[in-house]
Predict the structure.
Amino acid sequence: MPEVPPPITSKGYENDHIPSFWAPPGTMDEPTPELRWPLSIPVYDQMHRQDAQIRSVLRAVVLPIQRTDWWVEPNGARDEVVQHVADDLNLPVKGQEPTSKRRTRDRFSWFDHLRLALLMCRYGHSIFEQQARVGDDGRVHLAKLSLRPARTISGWNVAADGGLESIEQYGHLETAGPVTIPIGRLVAYCYEREGGNWAGMSLLRPAYKNWLLKDRLLRVNTMTIERNGLGIPIYEAAEGESDLTAGSTLAQSVRAGDGAGAATPNGARLRLAGVEGTLPDALPAIRYHDEQIARAVLAHFLNLGTQTGSWALGSTFADFFTLSLQALAQQIADVATQHVVEDLVDWNWGTEEPAPIIGFQEIGSQQQATAAAIKLLTDAGILLPDKSLEEAMRQALGLPPKDPLPGAP
């Protein structure tokens, strides 16, 4: 029986959007015009900078990922390769004693790169350009990964199969015109990318409607208080007074303050009329939209402080949220491994050389070491009660430092 030939080429395509006057490729599936890239960039900036709940939601997502421990896993690579990657990324090697850190000036910082990579949660994408240098050892080293800010990207050049070929940047003062950066230089983090839409989708996209309505409700609530909090001045004319122009001007000029006052003709009256009936209360609706904003990123526990709730239920919410952070961190690790680590190995040893991978500690797994846990580990021989352990435990438990022995220097 003849063998079935493998499919070497593809007949279908992923980049199914044609450029138009109204929107660039990959954005026509967005029904809200102001959220079509690149118009979405200033909208998400406004959401992030002006709303406390939006800010809280984003920080709840990015800070645990930044705080967890990251490392280089050998993954079967040679020690020389692993150490080269770890030194260039300023990350420790998993399972090895941490070495003294090098000076950080003019060196690549993984943690700063991680902070900027997480901007994909805000904009839907975070794009970097690689820059290398040849060291004194003759090896190629990673000099930096420079962020190409979302607001500076003017176009995406995408192949029919959905692969990114290059990006376009607006011209700069030092350049004659737009800049084209090919994919070989790029590291692209995209949140929930589908097909050829390399602009991705912002983490804030599902919360946009709630943010917009909440913003309007806040304005209405403030206007209600300002308009009706002190009453409305009303001028009642004196008997026989037909021209109310002066009285209307008087009523409109009344202001609260230490020097406030007014004079009326004989028989006229100026009074402050209170609100008749019940004013609409916008706060429950505002609270509802805050809850929906947190729910959009599975951060239900952010709402527990505004209402009564079960601690066990809050823990369940936090578990789901932690799982979502694990998935996001894994995406960052995969992209960095494919387009940073493997490129670094390719530059120095070729494409056939086994490469290490980026790894991280499970988010939420860190627990404070207690005295009982330290005792169990010491009794089992896993930890040795040396000087460093004693000093760390004294500091953790708030105990005073040990008195020096008589005659000790």
About this structure: Residues 367-398 form one domain. The radius of gyration is 31 Å. The chain is about 35% helix and 15% strand. Strands lie at 70-73, 125-134, 140-148, 153-158, 164-169, 179-182, 186-190, 232-236, 269-273, 357-360.
